[in-house]
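Render this sequence as a predicted structure.
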Amino acid sequence: MKQAELTPCALCGKGLLHDNHLDFYRVTVERHIVNGRAVQRQHGLELMLGNHFLAAVMGPDEDMTVELPGTKTANICFDCAVEYRVVQLPEALNKEGDE
């Protein structure tokens, strides 16, 4: 990261290293909306075929969501990451990938 990207913590407004930790989190948040028609079509195909795996292969592979404008990236200091439980996200994502 370049110096210009080292912005203060988005939650507390303090410098990223104010808590004497050398690590911090850089978080990107995307906002999505569900494509209701695509979900409805896929669900109907699942009901017709009786198997969601088969429907996933046989279906048109449409996007089930659409990203809304306004993706944000922010730096979060270690203290705020602990307080707001951001530190648990990587572990939760790893568990999700194991399933």
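Summary. The beta strands are 24-34, 65-77. The chain has one domain: 21-98.
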